[in-house]
Amino acid sequence: MILFKIVEPLLFREGGEIDPWISGVYSSAKSTIFPSPSTLVGAVATYFKEQGSKLDVEARTWYDEILSLIPDEVIFKGPFLKIGRKVYVGSKEKEEVYDLEVLIEYINHKKEELWNELVEGPHVKENVLKELKAAFKYNNVLLERTSIGLNRKTRTVKKGLLYTLRLVDFSGILKKYKISTSKVAFFLETKNFYKEFKVVSNLGGRGRIAIIETSTESIIDKFLDDAKYKKYILYFVSDCLIKQSVPSDLKKVFEESFVTWDWIFLSKIFERKAYIKGGKISIGVKGAGFSLRKKVRKPIYTALFNGSLLAVEFEEKVSPMELFWEEPAKSEAWKLGFGTFIPFPVE
User: Are strands 2-6 and 184-191 parallel, antiparallel or unpaired?
Assistant: First the structure.
């Protein structure tokens, strides 16, 4: 596991710009609550680059470039948020974080009702989904600050350039639960990662910093068992980047009686055959950012956003532990952590 300990408010942005020539003289930058997996893994890769690792300039993709700096065939999963002893996951729909342990207890308690709602779709009242959204969230984690544009050489104000930053700040949660700042960290679960280090590093935008520290502990494993099941509810912790475009008729996706994940627009997340019974999903486009080395934009993908829920029935039984770590086939940048989900067994 790799921890990214928070020491100040942070700014995590999507793949866009803060540019007064595009959006006018009053611009704003709003942080996402959770960093993208590539932001966190990129900080780890930067550490190894500073230690002498060489970048593979002929790497096939932008994410293979990042991974080329990191020793061993590492797999990252996340991101997750740790505050004290609690673990939180995010949702794309609102500025909220969810207590993972309570979320798991709730879904396990209501799994049959939730399964039915996901399968029956918009034709039924979303009683459980509404309860889920209302019960286990904590919002008000964005801190707003107004700033001005400066000439870097003269340190004088640029005329008319005013912008607003909305930074992610967990001080409200800290005060509520009386937790010190040192107990707050984003983290990635890892597989095949054996290096130990602790370093102060830039993280996100505006020159903000965090303490990156490795740990042999695994937090998520305690939520995953080895018993095997066929039916699962999948909660996506991070955005799933998809190779193929979204079909015009989404209804067809959920009405198809028997398919492989290779056929479905969500990508072949597994080699395993599965019935896709239904889901409550949020889809759109997501840019992978900008390559400073190549001075070009990274690709834009169709994405299944974090917070999405899928009801899936596999042809053969599989354990939650296997599903969590299993290699997907057509989900882009999965080794960085994109497409991470928590599998909730139903039966």
Answer: antiparallel
- What does the block give as tokens for 315? 């042809």
Gap between the Cα atoms of 320 and 22, Å rounded: 46
Q: Nearest CA to 192 among 40, 325, 31?
A: 325
β-strand pairing of 96-99 with 137-138: antiparallel
CB–CB of 131/139 below 8 Å? no
Residue 4 CA neighbour count, 13 Å, CB half: 29
What does the alpha-carbon distance between residue 138 and residue 128 come to, in Å, rounded to a whole number?
18
Best CA proximity match to 282, nearest among 302, 301, 306? 306
Mean pLDDT by 10 residues, the chain (347 residues): 88 59 54 87 94 91 93 92 86 73 85 85 59 58 63 64 71 70 86 93 85 92 91 90 62 44 44 74 77 77 83 89 77 89 92
Please say whether the beta carbons of 343 and 323 come within 8 A. Answer: yes
Cβ atoms of 188 and 78 within 8 Å: the answer is yes
Question: Burial code of 216-231, b = ≥16 C-beta within 10 A, e = fewer?
Answer: eeebbeebbeeeebbb
Could you tell me which residues are beta bridge partners of residue 162?
26, 148
Residue 202: how many other CB atoms lie within 10 Å: 13
| Structural tokens at position 226 | 């080895």
Nearest one of 309, 314, 312, 306 to 340, comparing CA atoms: 306
